[in-house]
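Title: Comparing notes on inverse folding

I've been comparing how different people in this forum approach sequence design from structure. To keep things fair, I'm posting one structure and asking everyone to reply with a full sequence. Here's the target:
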């Protein structure tokens, strides 16, 4: 874990493999479904506490597999995105959503300015500070790792692997050039979400603003349900990631060390 001075910060963020030297920094904004005791249960129905609305199932396990293969540090949130979504800026309503798909979050209704500030200061800012600290160590590439539900508002999604980007498409372009290595997978650009959905906040804040090549990986969560699934998916992703790192100007060292 990151060594912070304040207990609240320690509980909000975890840094895994902080000395990784592979040239890639992994971030996992939706790694946990944990709701700190001070927020009660947010009024959630029990079955929603572990649902995809509360976190990204499999995303942290996949991040750890990629970390091991690439010798990459991971910055992971330890708080449910229903408390604060670390991939959203404080001013966004979706940072502390009152509803996520069909999931209602009564504990987020009518939050005061002071309540929103407390969550921002105790969850979002420590996460951002940890990312900033790891960027100072000199990675060339930022990768944000997510998972998504196979069925959304009752509709089955065909996308299996989404390669997302904002204005900087360097890593996404290079990865997609190698998507042919996985003919059995439905791999799509900026699906099932894109910049218009507000999902590239972290890429812009931590990647583009710091001159880092960056990409978001969105994996359908029924493909990473257990350890075997995660191992398979990590190897499939690496078949796109490693050639991309090799081809990315200035990032070849990280790719060679992976």
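Reply #1:
Here's my take.
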């Amino acid at each position: 874990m990151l060594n912070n001075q304040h207990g609240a910060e320690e509980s909000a963020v975890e840094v895994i493999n902080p000395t990784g030297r592979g040239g890639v920094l992994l971030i996992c904004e939706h790694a946990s479904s944990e709701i700190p005791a001070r927020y009660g249960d947010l009024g959630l129905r029990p079955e929603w506490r572990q649902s995809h609305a509360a976190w990204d199932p499999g995303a942290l396990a996949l991040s750890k597999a990629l970390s091991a293969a690439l010798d990459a540090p991971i910055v992971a949130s330890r708080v449910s995105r229903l408390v604060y979504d670390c991939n959203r800026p404080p001013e966004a309503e979706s940072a502390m959503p009152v509803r996520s798909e069909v999931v209602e979050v009564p504990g987020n209704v009518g939050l005061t300015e002071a309540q929103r500030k407390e969550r921002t200061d105790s969850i979002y800012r420590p996460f951002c500070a940890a990312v900033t600290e790891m960027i100072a160590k000199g990675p060339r590439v930022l990768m944000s790792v997510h998972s998504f539900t196979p069925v959304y508002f009752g509709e089955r999604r065909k996308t299996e692997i989404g390669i997302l980007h904002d204005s900087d498409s360097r890593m996404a372009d290079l990865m997609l050039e190698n998507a042919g290595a996985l003919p059995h997978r439905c791999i799509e650009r900026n699906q099932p979400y894109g910049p218009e959905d507000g999902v590239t906040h972290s890429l812009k804040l931590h990647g583009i603003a710091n001159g880092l090549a960056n990409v978001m990986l969105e994996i359908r969560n029924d493909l990473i349900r257990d350890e075997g699934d995660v191992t398979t998916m990590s190897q499939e992703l690496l078949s796109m990631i490693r050639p991309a790192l090799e081809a990315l100007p200035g990032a070849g060292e990280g790719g060679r060390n992976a």
